[in-house]
Structures are given as structure tokens and as C-alpha cells.
Amino acid sequence: MRRTMMVVLAAAVGLFAAAGPWVRIDAAAGEQNRGASMAAAPAGGLLRLRDYSFAYWPNGFRKEKGDVSTDLLCIESGRYGFALDLASFSQARLGTLGGPGYAAAVATTGRPAGKLPTEPLKIELEHQGKLYRAVSCLAGRVKDPRHVILLESGRFAQRYRLVGLEFRDAGGKVLETASSLDLVAWPSSMTFTVSIAPDLAYEQGPCPGVVGAGRAIRRKAIDVPHRAGMDSQVFTLEVWVNVPRKLASLNRAHWLVGKNRHESHEGNFGLRCNRDSVTATMNIGRGRQNIHKVEKRKALTPGGWHHLAMSYDNQILRLFVDGRPAGTAKVGKVRVPGKGSLRIGNRPDGRGKPVHALFDELRIWNRALAPQEIRAHARTPSRFDPKGLGWQMSFDADAAADRPGEAPNLKGATVRVSLGKWRTSKQIAGDWPMGETRQVVLHCPVAGESWVDAPVTIAASGSKGTKYTVRHEPKMGAYVIDVPGFDRDWQAGYTDIRAYDEIEVKTDNKSGSRQYVPVLFDVRRPANITGQVPILCDAEGKPTGIPVQLSKNWHHGAYSKFYTILPLARGPGHCRLRIAYGFWGKLPSASHAQLSLWGYGGHGRWDQLAIGCWGETMCFDMDNSLTTMMVTDVRMLMTRNGRNGRKWSWTDGGWGGDWISVRSSGGGKLMPTELKTAYLAHGPCLTDVRHGGYYGRNREIAFDARIGTLRTDDYNRVFQQFSYRFKKLLGTEGAYLFKMGPSGHLLTPRIAYGNRSGLIAEHAVPGTVKAGSAFREQVALKGPGPWWVAFPGSVFSSDRNWGTGSRALIIRSFKAVHGGKEHRNPTVSFLVHRTDRTRKLAGLNLELVVPRGVTRFESGDTIDMDVEWITVPRIADDYYGPNEAFRLHLEQNPKSWKTVHREALGNDLEVSVTGGALMRNYPIVVAATQPEVQVTISGGTGVVPIRFEGLPSATGHTLYRLQDGVRTPLAQSVHGNDCWQTDYDAKSGSFKMTFNLPLDGVKQSTWILAR
């Protein structure tokens, strides 16, 4: 019987109770099956080599000017490839692939999208003998992928929403609907969910209103010149509005009715909508600082008429929705009437695109109507007392017009969805009224799914007994564990969270073979959304190494989506999902997440790093969906505004930065294409995320990048390794290899730069420099590496009361080959971004650039570099962390470049290894070759991460410090088993373990990983 995986709920169990094995797999490397703890796994045991997937844009997400190439969304797993042309679903492609493994696939060039066989995606609606087919989505028609919403993406699952499906018949006639397509891709399957709602069918012009006729606006707004009675000190504006569902699906603000230019202009007032929210806005005093507004969320039900009103009585701005008070704002200023135009359906000055909506009974009063009057108008729109009515537009002159605004009657329609051999059909029984969404789900098990028919049970509960629902969700192609809340006896939010949320999972596999079951933990109300790491542990709380995809959103509600594949051996099993927030053991945890922009805008791939849960560490706009830069928000760790400043909160470390930037022959910046992202480790000790792809529509530059951040207690570090390979001849004018800045918030009184030996030069930056000029240009950083650049004592340009720090860049290695000539020392430029005449200060950007004399990039040129971006507090009173060595340094060296040199020199580690091979010296990476590995480290600043690779099991290893012949275990656990990180490598069937070593003030230390 299909889907015999039963859903049950487990009773609560003790926090670390051993209740049977999590998985049963064959013993390996001498490790015995120990019941509740993890056994060793042969290759493919915990995770199969091809259990991964990617989502990317073969022709790029943000294109260069003049690039008219097809917008393709591509899914690539270890088993299949799928490419969808957003403008023509009939050109979809699908085929089988043989994946080389997750880490190898991200760097593989020559993506297969164009070589896959054509396999049309058919979405059809048949009604009364007429066939309509969804031929495209909105993004394809307007050639803007930002209308495709990336919801979740990572190692296992890719989930996208394509809004604005357009149904046309054979003659090209459009069937008006509000429709979207959700795509969920796992390593072995894809699921398509088509959502359709009949919508208003109308063109520009007359339409049925709430009283007689109304007016439909679609392409052209109505501009009404100022007239007497339209504008007064006190007023009420009311209007009836009907917003189609297709508008409510878009994340963009629209003006409904407005007067007097724009919201920053003196006298402006009006009503706006964004999705289903309504905002009343008004300006008294001009400028953005004098905008007053009231917003009501979830105010509009799409496809129905709503009465909206705003009033002002020289004291309070009020908003009403459907006759009910919806919010107030105390202003207390005398309003200055304006004489600008009134515009219906767009911003008053005509900027932007018109809204798509119906309007009726627009009235402006020269008095603030009483709430009971507004309620009466909403109930009976045709009846009102005209006292104080200054102006109205009823649209009744069009009352004799045709009725083009009626929604299609789709009663009895049939919806069909197919891709290749997979197809489904659904007939809509009964009425299908306007605005009512119906869904059709097509599941495509491209590579087979034995778990669907396997007799397996899954149960989930909270650590104190709360039962969580477990359900098979066809739309997700997986089992979903719904977690609406947690059993907590500790404080959540912005504080030093040192506890963990936990989900107990019990399984029983009664089949005759191991089953790999896709599971989504759908988590609502996480303790803190900005920093969190899901860790799949055994029954004793020991990390198993099984990856858990970290995708989240705080722009459209705060929720987390944790995707994984559970490898269930025969018999019962027991594990727990631990979620770390502020701390993992005794140190703040590190996390690297895919953060959805749904609800904010842009909608492309956005990565967010954090140390702890007190705001971001750094963000990356990987798809360039909001900016043309890679690095966006940069923030501080454990930094406040002076000794009495607020702890555990957001801070600022300056905005912005970028990876390589080179211009095409046409003068435009080369944009990323075929960019794939592999989330190898989300944390909590050391994150590891890799990117591979090209720059340029003609694949002019191939690149690989590797990003990581660490668990620590002093300051933020973000490791960035780059490899660039040039395929075409390009000019170097205006090019940079890496950029720090621009920041509109930070001013930089001084710059300093140096090498391993110390300071090369320090310069005061006068406030008289000209924005756009070069303060220092093509400065060669001489001497031995690592090299470093500091902005000591940066100044935050606004009065916001939060912690602010100084940016710095450490270049740990550098090698560039230009025209066959090798360059081992980096070159930097300092460009003036802005000046502040009042403070007599300037803000500078840092750019790594080509050396003097290099005028072009030739085919065959290469660049390899390893940089570390740090943000440090300026003075000791700003730092509230526990690292006393760092605090003492700040006391002795306030606002100093010496803080940067301390990091550059202190973590230029000398490492020797016995029983293994050294792969990298910072962060330290060791490939184990013997059961016991000894590592001797000279130097170390802060808490240094060390990762051991090639281990035969996830448990049974202990890290010791060797002192005077005595082995002492590293003791950083607080809740048990919570000081290390485990990651599983499916290609080798081995494990990685990561620890964080406290090395401040230690000249030399020896560490032993022993079984």
C-alpha cells in the first residue's frame, strides 16, 4: 500500500535518556554498535553520495546591461537535472545525471542545463470545452527573476515560488487568475504545486462599483488637478478599493490614492497598500523625518471591496478599514494644505507603475469625520450627510457601461499538470468563486523513493512532553514535523541564550532494508532567529554528523525550516534535534544560514552569518538581487556603546564589500552566472560554505570561493578564500580583486597598513578630501605576509545608540599571475566614498587591485588569495565579552592598528602534525591517518578552530591537551556533549570533528585527538 509510513506521537522522554539506537549500521574500524550512540558508518551509510541538490541560474540572476539571454532556473541533484525557462514552460528540460558528490559538484564547470532533453512542463485548465495553458510566470514576461521567490535552499531541498502564472487559450486570450507555481526539489524528486484563484477580469476603464459604476485602473492612473475643497488643514479621505489577488501576491508597495507629489513633500497625504496591508501617510514639515503614517496589516482580502478612510484633526492621524478603527498616530502639528494634483492609482507625481485595482466613491471632507460616520459610510456607501464634503468622484457617469469586471465562472473546470511521464488531473467540483484558491499537486519521483511504501513510523515530541504532529505532506515531497512552539523555562529573544531547544524523534523501520527518509522540521517561534544552528544528535546528545539544512525567514514572520534525510536502519531508532542559539557549550556558536528575503524584496539567494544570536556577523547577496555587491551588512560581536550601553543586541561594523569586479568590453560590470552554493557545514564551531561559477555572460572568469566563520568570544572573523581563472581578455581599468566598503555610516579618521613584521605606514585622513577621489592609489604591501589593513577608531556617522566597531582586512596569502608574471605581494588602493563637512571627516573604501603596470587580464591569468575580514571594538569599555586577554589589549591599545596586527601575527600559526597531514594552518585543518593524532601549535590569538578529517566514526574520540606529559580533556561542555561539531563526508564514508582551542597567551601547545 502506498505511503504506509505511519505517523505517531511519542510520549516525552528524559533529556539524555538512552531509549534504543538512533540508527543501526554495521560496525567499522573496531567500533562496536553501542545501542543509543552512533556507530561507525561505511561509505554511503549515513548519507548517500548523491543525496544533494543545487538551485542556480545558468545565465545569471542579475544580468549585465544588454544581456537578453533566457532566464533559466536550474535544479541539479546528484541524480537528475531540471531547467525551466521562465518565459516558456514548454521549453523545460529534464534528464538524469551522475553526480560526483556535493563538494565536487559545486566546482564542476560546464553545467548540464543546455544538454538536458526537452520535457515540457504542462499546466492546463479546461473549462466548457476551452483549453487554457500556463505559458509563463511574471518573472519570465518582464525579464526580472526578482519576481521568483526563493523560499528555502540548501544541501537537500530547494523551494521556489513562481508568481503570476498567465493562462492563455490557443488564440492568445488571457484567463484572469491569481496563480502561482511552487517547486520543491529533493535529491530524488520534484514536487510542483499549482495554486489557482479566479480573479477580476477587466481592462482599463468602467467597471461595476459598490454604487453604480466604478473605475478599473490597470495601465494608466487618473490624474486630477487641484480643485477647491480638495485640501484643508483638517480632512478625511475615504475610498472604496477592490484589489485583485495577483496584486496581493507581489511584494511591492503601491499608491492607491495620493495628493501633493510624494511622501517626503510638504502637505502630501494618501493611502498605500503592500500585499494585504494598508498605510495612511501624511507629511507636515517636509522631508522623510516628517512623514507620519499608520499601517494596518492583513487589512485587505483580495478580490473584494473594502472601505478605506484616513482622517486628521491637527492632533491625531487615524486609519479606518471597513468602518473600523485600524490605528492612530499622535502628530500634534498644524497641517499645511497643498495645491498639487491628486492621483488615483499611482504616486501623486506619477512616478512608478500604476496599481492594478478597482476604485469607487472617492470623497474628501474638510473635517475629520467621527468614527460612527465612517462606520455608517462603510455599511451603506450610497447614503451620507454631505456636510463638509469638499470634493468627490463617484464614477457614476459610467454607470451605463458594460460590466467587464466580473470574475470568470470556472465551475466544473479541470486542471491538469504533467512533466514527462508524471501527470495528475483534478476536476473542481461545485462552485469555484472568485478569490478562492484551489491547488493541484504533481509529485515526480525522478529517481525512485522506496521510503514512500516502507512500513516505517516516526514520532516527535518536545523535551518536556509536548507532542508534535508528524505528517506526510505531498506538497513538500517529505514528512513534516510541525513545531509550533517549544517547552522552555528560559528567556528567549535578545539575551545570552545558553540553553537549547530540542525535538525528540523516535522511529521504527519494519522494512527489510535501510530507508533514507526526507524530513522537514517546520519550526515556528524559534528562540532567536538571527543566530541558530540545528544539530542532529543521538539519544545521548552527541552530534551524529548527519547534515541538517538551515533555511529561515524573519521578513515574513519568524520561522525556520530544517531539512534533512534520516537514514533509518532496521528496527527502532531514537535521536534528538538540538537547536543552539547564543552559545554552544561555553562559547558563542557560529552559524551560516540561507535567509529568505520573502517579505522584504529582491527574493534571490541571501546568506547570513552570525556568531551568537545578537544580530548578523555578515551577509552575502549571492544573487545580487538587492545590490550589485556580494557583501552587505557587517556587524560586531559583544560590543556596546560604552560601559553603560545595551548588551546582546544589534551593532554596526560598516556596510558593504565585494568580490572581484571587472568590466566587460561594453563597460558594464561582469555579473555572476552559473553560481552554485554548497552548504558543507552550518556550524556551530566552524562554518564551511563554498561557491562556484563564473563572472560574465560569456563565462569570462571562472571562480571558486569558500566562506567560513568561527565559534569565539572576542570579535568577528569571516574567512574568505578565492580562486579566479581568466578565460577571456579583459581590461583592468576600474577593476578590483576584493573590496571593503562602501559604507554610508562609517567615517575613517585614519588608515594603517602593514605586514607580518608590523606597521608599514599610517595616515590621518583629512575631511577636505574629495568624494570619488583616490586618497592612496596602488600601494604595494611590501615585506612578508600576512599583510593587513586597518581603519582604527572608525566613527559612526549617525546618532544611533548601539555598538560600533572598526573594519579590518588581513590578507593571509596572495598569488596573482598576470601575463605569465607572478606577483606574491598584494596591492591596495584607498578611495574616498564620502565626506562629512560638519565633522571634518571622510569615509574611505579599501580595494585590492592589480599592481602598477598591469593593464589587462589575459586568458590564463590566475588569482588565488586568502583573506580574513575582522571587526573589532575600538575601546575596552565597548567590549563586554569574557576574553580578558583581549580586554587588556584594548585597554592598552585603544583605537589602534595594533589590534589588527595582533590578529594577523598571532594567528599566523606554525603547526606540526603526527598521525595525520596538515591541510591548512588557520583555521587548522588536519587529515587524520592514524587512530591518534598529535598537533603542536606555535602561536594563537583568541579561540582557534581546528578540524580533524577522515575519522572512522562520529563518537569515541576525545581531544586532550598535553602538558608535562599529562593529558587533560578539553572541557567546554555545559549541557553535555556540546563543545564539538561533527560533519559526515558521504564520499569517503568518514567524519570530521571540529573544536575551538583557547590559545590566548599560549606560546606553544600540544593537542591529541585519541580514540
Strand content: 35-45%
Separation of the first and last Cα atoms: 46 Å
> How many domains is the backbone divided into?
5
Oligomerization state of this entry? single chain
Shape: globular
Mean pLDDT: 92
Which spans have pLDDT < 50 for at least 5 consecutive residues? 1-44
Q: Give a count of the beta strands, DSSP E runs of length 2 or more.
A: 75
What is the C-alpha radius of gyration, as a whole number of Å?
A: 30 Å
The main β sheet shows up as: 14 strands, mixed
Q: Tell me the strand order in the biggest sheet.
A: 33-34-36-39-38-43-44-45-46-47-53-63-62-57
Helix content percent band: under 10%
Query: Which structural class fits the helix and strand makeup?
Result: mainly beta
Number of helices: 6
Question: Can you describe what's shown?
Answer:
This protein is mainly β and 1011 residues long. The protein folds into five domains: 6-50 and 454-588, no CATH class; 53-199 and 411-444, no CATH class; 205-398, Jelly Rolls (Sandwich); 629-668 and 714-906, no CATH class; 910-1010, Immunoglobulin-like (Sandwich), CATH 2.60.40. Helices cover 4% and strands 45% of the residues. It is built from six helices and 75 strands. The strands form 13 sheets. The protein has a 14-stranded mixed β-sheet with strand order 33-34-36-39-38-43-44-45-46-47-53-63-62-57, with no helix packed on it. Strands 48, 49, 50, 51, 55, 56, 58, 60, 61 and 65 form a ten-stranded antiparallel β-sheet that branches. Strands 14, 15, 17, 22, 23, 24, 26 and 27 form an eight-stranded antiparallel β-sheet that branches. The longest helix has 9 residues, at 371-379. The chain is globular and about 95 Å long. The relative contact order is 0.11. The model is unreliable at 1-44 (pLDDT under 50).
